[in-house]
Amino acid sequence: MDFAQSARSREYLDRLRAFIATEVAPVEARLHAERVKPFAQRSDVPGAAMWQVPEEFRQLQSKARAEGLWNLFLPDAELGAGLSNVEYAPLAEEMGRSPLAPVVFNCNAPDTGNMEVLYHYGSTEQKERWLRPLLDGEIRSAFCMTEPDVASSDATNMAATAVVEGNEVVLNGRKWWSTGVGSPDCKVLIFMGLTDPEAHKYQRHSMVLVPMDTPGVKVERMLSTMGFYDEPFGHGEVSFTNVRLPLDAIIAGPGRGFEIAQGRLGPGRVHHCMRLVGLAESALELAIRRGTERVAFGKPLINLGGNRERIADARIAINQLRLLVLNTAWLLDTQGIAGARSAVSEIKVAAPRVAQQVIDFAMQIHGGGGLSDDFPLAGAWTSARAIRLADGPDEVHQGLVARFELGKYQ
Amino acid sequence: MDFAQSARSREYLDRLRAFIATEVAPVEARLHAERVKPFAQRSDVPGAAMWQVPEEFRQLQSKARAEGLWNLFLPDAELGAGLSNVEYAPLAEEMGRSPLAPVVFNCNAPDTGNMEVLYHYGSTEQKERWLRPLLDGEIRSAFCMTEPDVASSDATNMAATAVVEGNEVVLNGRKWWSTGVGSPDCKVLIFMGLTDPEAHKYQRHSMVLVPMDTPGVKVERMLSTMGFYDEPFGHGEVSFTNVRLPLDAIIAGPGRGFEIAQGRLGPGRVHHCMRLVGLAESALELAIRRGTERVAFGKPLINLGGNRERIADARIAINQLRLLVLNTAWLLDTQGIAGARSAVSEIKVAAPRVAQQVIDFAMQIHGGGGLSDDFPLAGAWTSARAIRLADGPDEVHQGLVARFELGKYQ
Amino acid sequence: MDFAQSARSREYLDRLRAFIATEVAPVEARLHAERVKPFAQRSDVPGAAMWQVPEEFRQLQSKARAEGLWNLFLPDAELGAGLSNVEYAPLAEEMGRSPLAPVVFNCNAPDTGNMEVLYHYGSTEQKERWLRPLLDGEIRSAFCMTEPDVASSDATNMAATAVVEGNEVVLNGRKWWSTGVGSPDCKVLIFMGLTDPEAHKYQRHSMVLVPMDTPGVKVERMLSTMGFYDEPFGHGEVSFTNVRLPLDAIIAGPGRGFEIAQGRLGPGRVHHCMRLVGLAESALELAIRRGTERVAFGKPLINLGGNRERIADARIAINQLRLLVLNTAWLLDTQGIAGARSAVSEIKVAAPRVAQQVIDFAMQIHGGGGLSDDFPLAGAWTSARAIRLADGPDEVHQGLVARFELGKYQ
Amino acid sequence: MDFAQSARSREYLDRLRAFIATEVAPVEARLHAERVKPFAQRSDVPGAAMWQVPEEFRQLQSKARAEGLWNLFLPDAELGAGLSNVEYAPLAEEMGRSPLAPVVFNCNAPDTGNMEVLYHYGSTEQKERWLRPLLDGEIRSAFCMTEPDVASSDATNMAATAVVEGNEVVLNGRKWWSTGVGSPDCKVLIFMGLTDPEAHKYQRHSMVLVPMDTPGVKVERMLSTMGFYDEPFGHGEVSFTNVRLPLDAIIAGPGRGFEIAQGRLGPGRVHHCMRLVGLAESALELAIRRGTERVAFGKPLINLGGNRERIADARIAINQLRLLVLNTAWLLDTQGIAGARSAVSEIKVAAPRVAQQVIDFAMQIHGGGGLSDDFPLAGAWTSARAIRLADGPDEVHQGLVARFELGKYQ
């Protein structure tokens, strides 16, 4: 239970901060300025263009990679930075303060989770074909699990199929909230579907690697989240119609979908939570800066009514959350996913709650501006809200935590 | 304290419901389908086109007017429907369930508030020039009060000026969250500015009627609220640079801005709250419908975990809110704005809270869909959130309620 | 939906207030002073003596009765005051501000509920023997329903028996939270027990009138609620061992227990909620008085931090609650218990929540004193907390409200 | 930031648990049984007798001391156990699960804080006279700071005086919430009073050691907290009338009261919070045990409605709290009180909130029993509630946390 930051982690953090301040922040500011630019021009902006990846993104990625600020999430020392989860936590938190940073350092969802799947379960060929270019940032990927037509909180509801026919696996079904499919760089999807309805409940499904250009794969539309499209990556609804792939497209063989999903979602959820700590911190900082600059009724806003109490409550909530996240990282490092299952669900519930609370306060103290795109708060709130559903809704994680808790008494 | 619905109000409600079901709902469904239509087309949608008012809007308005479902908000029996606030409440609640309905029946913000200003304070000429076409739905209007550069929660911070020079009044300054300026039909702005800094705190400001095409008026940009532009009406930032108007553009003469604002904001806020009751009701209905249709872990969602408790809490909260709104309407009817000041602030705080809580639950029970534009929930949540800031942030209204409460002990 | 106070109700309210101020308050103050009197003497106080009814209680009751401030709760114009529930609500609220007042005016739980049972379901003999002296305040009664050995939230769990044997009914079992059995004036218990396990679920139980001195009836002990014994009335655990009574001790005949309970608990719960509105109001008043008198950090407490926001939130919550209670009273008056079932459960959930919130704030602003017996806040909080369990826990009432809500969609 | 439990701490914990299970628990059970014993006897119980320390207490203390489970809180290796705060945390948590344990192991408030004051600031004579017997458990002490007549949340309000007159210091004033003065073993009070009103704000006050039997010292009365007297130790109101003591009764010399208070309250507050973690854990355990044993509507209570969600939320809240407390202990160990000031205030706010929430849930799931003395929940809730005021109300600690937070931006 040692959460102390190692020298290595500290050193990475310093460089990360410097890079974000000097390289990432100016690009973010420019892109943001474009977003809020005058009306006449705006009318021309969205549409197809907004789904292009700006060249600046790629340049930032190249620089980051050149400086070794790359794939920090991956514990493998050769392919990634070789950091433990406890070491990575402060770095992910720092990236979470910026909408752009996770992508710049190749540490963003869903690619990190997908890379981990390939790293742990992929065959040599699968690794060569997909993991390498993902690690290099040359391509992007998506994860196709949730379905529009069933309550996907219960994964056994999954209706899409991945049927083995001879040498092939045939995919059919419809998925949504496939994050990243909006990008022209998205070249591969990890699809989860039902293979054998007669097998044990947790051995019925398979995960299949689907090249984006396979016949029968169609991005039906991009979805907005509370009005945001999160372009140029976005979240899509994707249909699969008689998509045929060779059997070796299945990861780790048929029937292992649940096992892989379990492993995949653990670190992915923890990374989300690490970033949410940073998001909450940055919202608190914005609230304090705005609250001390602006004056009403003869006082800085921060000194009005219950604002200082809310500052204190935010600090308390964030500090508690960060410790719970660190503890989960430490459990992952020392006991693996099996020893961290309740902990992962605990932070999955706690993190977006805390972030939402702090961001809502920050929005309120910014007045109307807090709701607009002039500040990153509306987007931040939406990210936090979405994570209360993404990778399992709160209620499912509460159910898992309760199950573990009750299990202690049996 | 009689909140019983009159026969007249009941009769209007029946017709309103029928009209919404048969006329408005299909158009809403079609427009909504367009919003979520497939990706390829979507890329062409936004931009300039989204700020056009669809011809269907105008047709719906004509029909509504022909059926006498028009200007229901206006207590005046000749110009409006002649309903009391208690009588209007159920009608506004019904309209609040639909994003489109308030506009269809010419009962939407900010036009209703602006019409009331003109009705109560306008000169004969002002009424003829602006009130008549507004009542006829021929033009639309905006209200320019909040400013980007100061904490507008304290209205005395207002920095824009409306200086009297000879026969003219000269406007300078920058306003934002001017709702409605995005529409090509928006022809007039009500601008509030500082006229005499030496006068009594509440007699320094004037309200001025500004034709949209006056030189020096510029819509700088449209603002998004949590990602939504609320097109085709939208919320704009508007600059005023040496805008010169004849003195008779001032409503009720110089220095009466605060007095008018006070009167304007009362009913406007109450209408917002009436509609929020309807918004909360419709979210609860969506939650129940979805929760009974979808199944997870072998049960309808509604029977899982604390969902039924949340249904009950929503019902309790909505019922309490509706009664508080009705009581405020009754106070307005019987004691005027002066006797309803605390009550108006009470519902202004309570209504968006309740709506947010119920809508958030409904979003959660819809899973990812609840965040998307497939359901009206994301937009509904955003409306409720915005009202926690619009027309005065919660904290200012809490302050007023507390002041009244403490005043009882002096 | 007319909640206006009638002239008659207003007139009663004026007299009630005057009587409480001049007659009840001084006695309360004296009894309270005794409670907090110096240590040396205190050591002698509790014990048997505390279960005596002070003579002053009886004198206050006589005076109240002489002035016609008596049995105000009973809608019957001959036996009671003949007030509707809407008319009674402000009177019950006023009584709720004082721990002593409900008893003084013969309007306290559980006697009011028991009197209503006898009024509606009692035979002529039962009325003569028990209802008359209860209405006269000569005796007191208790209600024995909840049992220590089962989860009584599910009434079908009830294990006590009321078996018909020839001309007799034989009672066995153990009940607790029998309020009022501590008083020497308590002469009769209403006991509910299982008569016919084979009958329809809601026709298995009977209610039996049990004279306190019947052989086999034993008060095992008095229970404390959060440390308070609520002497001299108190809450007891009572055992029934082969208690034999003639058949005519059964109210309305065997098997009608559930039906009677349903009818009994409706008005009883509403009265609780009416009083809780008054309790919350008096806590808010205490908070404001203390908060304006005491100074810290150079300001009256009320102006520190979020205190004014809490005042506002309390006012909003209380106003909403009062309206919901009035609406429930109005439903009872106009549609009877059947039309008010959801409403009764709604206020049963809402009222103690609001009261707890306001009282907790008042305690906090009183500092340590707020927890002590120097102020009525600790006792008030405990009353509110207890009502979240008494007459059905929150969760059961939420379940009922949800059931009604979902029923609208079938 | 290493919170891992040391081998030594683990070993103490094992022995502590065993001792509590075999020695303390049976005594607690017996005393508890006495508390709820039948009515007839109960009437004789309270009064003077309840303020006697049962002989069993002393025997338990002797045994605990003999086994080396004694003064575990004191970091000094000779006088205490020599444990760091991080090492002590799990032990204090364990003691917090039992009302009796802290006293048994001589680790209870306010004696631990008082011993620390003497340890750090006492003269050799003061240590010999008071610290030694306190460490030996021969006597007990109280801390007299809060005053009934002023808002003591602002310590500069303090009105009691400690005036130096020649060789003597003369005390006058009235204190309350002096915990422990009810016990016949309480032999010394630490009194804080105003010495020099002209000095710097934080150098005006002195702390004075007052033998309980000094003329002029009078326990005016014992105070109840939410109905509980917490006998035999209790909380008293104490008057000081011309109490004369030699100058060497002043701890560390005149004017150092604030400095000492600051130092004293740090560890004292942390110990409270450590114990609250244990209190919350034990409430959660009780809730789960009861919830799985009792059945309603055909299911164990724990599976009804939102109960499992509440279990999960409790687990999340407790885990976060424990980590925040450990982090504070670690800051105290590594950076001293100066480096832990915000952290101490953070847990002081967070700990009772979490405990209250969990205990309230546990009470609810116990039904009426949860409010009675049959379970330790009512007492536990009261302890938690009291700590929201003791050693500084929440609002003062929130203010301090906010001040530190805002300080980062200056």
UniProtKB/TrEMBL annotation, chains A, B, C, D:
<dbReference type="GO" id="GO:0050660">
    <property type="term" value="F:flavin adenine dinucleotide binding"/>
</dbReference>
<protein>
    <submittedName>
        <fullName>Acyl-CoA dehydrogenase</fullName>
    </submittedName>
</protein>
<keyword id="KW-0274">FAD</keyword>
<dbReference type="InterPro" id="IPR009075">
    <property type="entry name" value="AcylCo_DH/oxidase_C"/>
</dbReference>
<comment type="subunit">
    <text>Homodimer.</text>
</comment>
<dbReference type="Pfam" id="PF00441">
    <property type="entry name" value="Acyl-CoA_dh_1"/>
</dbReference>
<dbReference type="GO" id="GO:0003995">
    <property type="term" value="F:acyl-CoA dehydrogenase activity"/>
</dbReference>
<feature type="domain" description="Acyl-CoA dehydrogenase/oxidase N-terminal">
    <location>
        <begin position="29"/>
        <end position="138"/>
    </location>
</feature>
<dbReference type="Pfam" id="PF02771">
    <property type="entry name" value="Acyl-CoA_dh_N"/>
</dbReference>
<feature type="domain" description="Acyl-CoA dehydrogenase/oxidase C-terminal">
    <location>
        <begin position="255"/>
        <end position="403"/>
    </location>
</feature>
<dbReference type="InterPro" id="IPR046373">
    <property type="entry name" value="Acyl-CoA_Oxase/DH_mid-dom_sf"/>
</dbReference>
<keyword id="KW-0560">Oxidoreductase</keyword>
<dbReference type="InterPro" id="IPR006091">
    <property type="entry name" value="Acyl-CoA_Oxase/DH_mid-dom"/>
</dbReference>
<dbReference type="InterPro" id="IPR013786">
    <property type="entry name" value="AcylCoA_DH/ox_N"/>
</dbReference>
<dbReference type="GO" id="GO:0005737">
    <property type="term" value="C:cytoplasm"/>
</dbReference>
<dbReference type="InterPro" id="IPR009100">
    <property type="entry name" value="AcylCoA_DH/oxidase_NM_dom_sf"/>
</dbReference>
<comment type="similarity">
    <text>Belongs to the acyl-CoA dehydrogenase family.</text>
</comment>
<dbReference type="Pfam" id="PF02770">
    <property type="entry name" value="Acyl-CoA_dh_M"/>
</dbReference>
<dbReference type="GO" id="GO:0033539">
    <property type="term" value="P:fatty acid beta-oxidation using acyl-CoA dehydrogenase"/>
</dbReference>
<dbReference type="InterPro" id="IPR037069">
    <property type="entry name" value="AcylCoA_DH/ox_N_sf"/>
</dbReference>
<dbReference type="InterPro" id="IPR036250">
    <property type="entry name" value="AcylCo_DH-like_C"/>
</dbReference>
<dbReference type="InterPro" id="IPR050741">
    <property type="entry name" value="Acyl-CoA_dehydrogenase"/>
</dbReference>
<feature type="domain" description="Acyl-CoA oxidase/dehydrogenase middle">
    <location>
        <begin position="142"/>
        <end position="243"/>
    </location>
</feature>
<keyword id="KW-0285">Flavoprotein</keyword>
